[in-house]
Design goal:
alpha/beta; TIM Barrel; eight-stranded parallel beta sheet; five-stranded antiparallel beta sheet; binds zinc ion
């Protein structure tokens, strides 16, 4: 440990020099890099400007993003409202209609800011206050709470939302982790396994034969191949990819990794991987496998090494059997801290070997998180593990926001700089941006502000995301992880030129990976040029609705160094808009407004969510919940008879109302006398209806 601390002390001194050694060569432009580092230094304390700059920065791909956790949560609430989904007002768990007991229609959340907020807090880590173990639990529970909204019917919307978000952040590639119906297969084929069996190659390959012959396996595989094709096609239609105003998401190439659920029995995990390898053969969109759900779950721990062995067997079978397409392996490993593990010697020992065995036994090409590496003392120890990761060219998918929220790791407590110092390739990833409320730009900002990463290193992290992607074909670069010399076929070409030499055109056409890397190099050059002349910036302000009975919102926006701006919302303000302006829009429901502008440096985008200002509804439902003896039964019909906006409660024969003459709240009880109980502002504050 002492050695590592010493190493850490020199990281900051060396980081700049090490990565600057290649500055003169192709792929690194010293002048532009210095310019951008100066710019970053000058705005490092201004989070708005820093975010603007890093939004514009081309960031390659996101290699670690779970589809179900990546979708914007305001959108999920909106889809639930559209689909008539119910939500429980005690647990905030969504369920399919009809609504029963304490459930109400999700649609109510869009016109009740309190309910909307409570749902958002239950479904995300927004404003979460609690211990680390509570945060951990809250995070994993959230997926079950909103799961009912994300049916197959919303698969197209989900992909469109994720691609659009990536495009607006100047990314061009995403690898999404998804079950892709593997759970249907694992449930149906669980019968082929007995718990006491010894796992070895012969046993597993024999089980594989049974699984792939199972009728459920065959039908699920067939329908999923079609589903994926349709989802990609439909998402691109939703994004207007063949229209004159395509969404930035149209620039983003998607691929999928089949994620097996490690909380299940080992036999079911194996079945999911068998299915994954067949899906890789059948669908060009599926490129690899992964392993998801809490790493500290009792099944995850119990079967860890069995599952690494199983993956080794399947992977070897796949990649040595002629005519089969390569299946890639990325594994969640080392997303652990002592407090989430059993407080026993055996439990704590789990900290010491997960990354090592993921690469040593299962031959993982990438590791998700790798946060506990400084505890990985098994085998020849920590330094040997760093060396092995470097020598085997294993990339670490670093998820800073996720590790902070779920593992309490931040700044110097996170091993990011250890990986960099030991020349282990790293890239930044979002993990679950819908639940964590981050985006890829957040991760790049954190790398600068919390880890002192310099721009040239940051740029290579973006490049690493494509170099280590599971796209087919060879790399644009001669040497892995050194981004200064392109292959001979393209060495005479300039990414900024519109025409390519015949050899380069041919190379990019036959190598998907090189083609997307070429696209990134072009974006980087444009971004670095624009950094001298002006980054595209956007601001968007949405006024909240000023009075309780008005239903409009005023939007003001500005941009700089932009050539076009596009608006998108769930309620009508959409399409091409001027580069700056102001507009009054009708708004009856909680709405998220998004403005995306495009310029020389790429896209920049801002969103603003405006909650409905339905204080009357909010106040009355607060009164119903807190004073049932005065206001019952609960009844959601609000009536307007000027000057009053009011609600009548049959059970208590009472009224609650707000007068537009004096903006005071009135109460009329069973005795018929009308009482002025004070100003609306005070009551709204008291009821939490802002
Ligand atoms: Zn993950």
């Amino acid at each position: 440990m002492k050695l590592l601390i010493k190493i850490f002390a020199v990281v900051f001194i060396n980081l700049y020099a090490i990565n600057f050694a290649s500055a003169e060569s192709w792929g690194h432009h010293e002048k532009s890099e210095i310019q951008i580092m100066k710019l970053i230094k000058s705005i490092s304390k201004d989070s708005v400007q820093l975010t603007n700059l890093l939004t514009s920065m081309p960031k390659g791909g996101d290699l670690h993003s779970h589809t179900s956790g990546a979708v914007n949560m305001e959108k999920i609430i909106h889809w639930g409202a559209e689909d008539g989904v119910c939500v429980d007002t005690a647990t905030y768990t969504a369920s399919l209609p009809p609504c029963k007991g304490s459930q109400v229609s999700m649609a109510q959340a869009e016109s009740d800011p309190n309910l909307f907020n409570n749902v958002l807090m239950a479904w995300t880590m927004a404003d979460f206050a609690g211990t680390l173990s509570n945060a951990h639990q809250h995070f994993f529970d959230s997926f079950n709470k909103f799961g009912a909204v994300l049916s197959n019917a919303r698969a197209d919307d989900e992909l469109a939302d994720i691609l659009s978000a990536a495009g607006r952040q100047n990314q061009i590639y995403v690898e999404l982790l998804q079950g892709l119906n593997s759970s249907a297969v694992s449930s149906a084929t669980a019968k082929y396994f007995s718990s006491g069996d010894t796992w070895n190659e012969a046993y597993l390959l024999q089980k594989r034969n049974l699984i792939i012959a199972d009728p459920v396996f065959i039908s699920t595989l067939k329908s999923t191949v079609t589903d994926i094709d349709n989802t990609v096609t439909n998402a691109r239609i939703m994004l207007g990819c063949n229209t004159a105003t395509p969404d930035p998401g149209c620039n983003v190439e998607p691929r999928f990794l089949v994620s097996a659920n490690r909380t299940k029995d080992r036999g079911q995990v194996f079945s999911q991987w068998v299915y994954a390898y067949e899906l890789i053969q059948a669908s060009p969109w599926v490129v690899g496998v992964n392993l998801v759900s809490p790493e500290e779950d009792s099944n995850s721990l119990l079967y860890y090494n069995d599952e690494m062995t199983a993956l080794d067997v399947l992977n070897r079978f796949n990649n040595t059997t002629q005519g089969r397409r390569k299946g890639h392996v990325s594994l969640h490993a080392g997303e652990l801290i002592p407090s989430v593990l059993p407080q026993t010697p055996a439990g704590q020992q789990q900290l010491s070997f997960h990354i090592r065995n993921a690469i040593g036994i299962a031959h993982a090409e990438r590791i998700g998180h790798g946060a506990d590496i400084l505890n990985e003392i098994s085998g020849a120890g920590i330094q040997d593990l760093f060396n092995t990761l470097h020598n085997q060219n294993v990339l670490i998918e670093i998820c800073l926001s996720s590790n902070q929220a779920l593992l309490g790791m931040k700044g110097n407590n996170h091993p990011l700089n250890y990986y960099i110092y030991n020349s282990v390739p790293v890239t930044l990833a979002t993990d679950d941006q819908g639940v964590l409320r981050n985006d890829i730009t957040t991760e790049y900002v954190k790398a600068i502000t919390e880890h002192q990463i310099k721009y040239p290193v940051l740029k290579d992290m973006a490049r690493a995301s494509l170099e280590h992607s599971f796209l087919t074909g060879s790399s644009l670069w001669v040497q892995a992880n050194v981004y200064d010399q392109p292959v001979a076929d393209c060495s005479g070409d300039n990414p900024l030129n519109s025409s390519l030499s015949a050899s380069c055109a041919q190379y990019l056409q036959t190598n998907q990976r090189a083609a997307i890397q070429w696209k990134l190099e072009k974006q980087i050059l444009q971004f670095e040029l624009a950094a001298n002349t002006g980054i595209t910036t956007v601001s968007l302000n949405a006024s909240s609705i000023p009075a309780y009975n008005q239903t409009t919102t005023t939007l003001n926006w500005e941009s700089s160094n932009a050539s076009s701006c596009q608006a998108s919302t769930t309620n009508g303000w959409s399409g091409q808009v001027p580069l700056s302006g102001s507009i009054v829009v009708n708004q009856k429901l909680t709405t998220t407004y998004t403005l995306t502008c495009n310029g020389n440096s790429g896209y920049n985008s801002r969103s603003a969510t405006v909650f409905v200002n339905d204080p009357a509804g909010c106040l009355f439902s607060w009164a119903e919940n807190n004073y049932p003896l005065l206001f019952s039964p609960t009844n959601y019909i609000i009536r307007v008879t000027p000057p009053y906006t009011y609600q009548y409660f049959k059970g208590t024969n009472s009224y609650a109302g707000i007068s537009s003459v004096d903006n005071d709240v009135y109460y009329k009880g069973a005795d018929g006398s009308l009482q002025d109980v004070g100003g609306i502002a005070d009551w709204l504050f008291k009821a939490g209806c802002h």
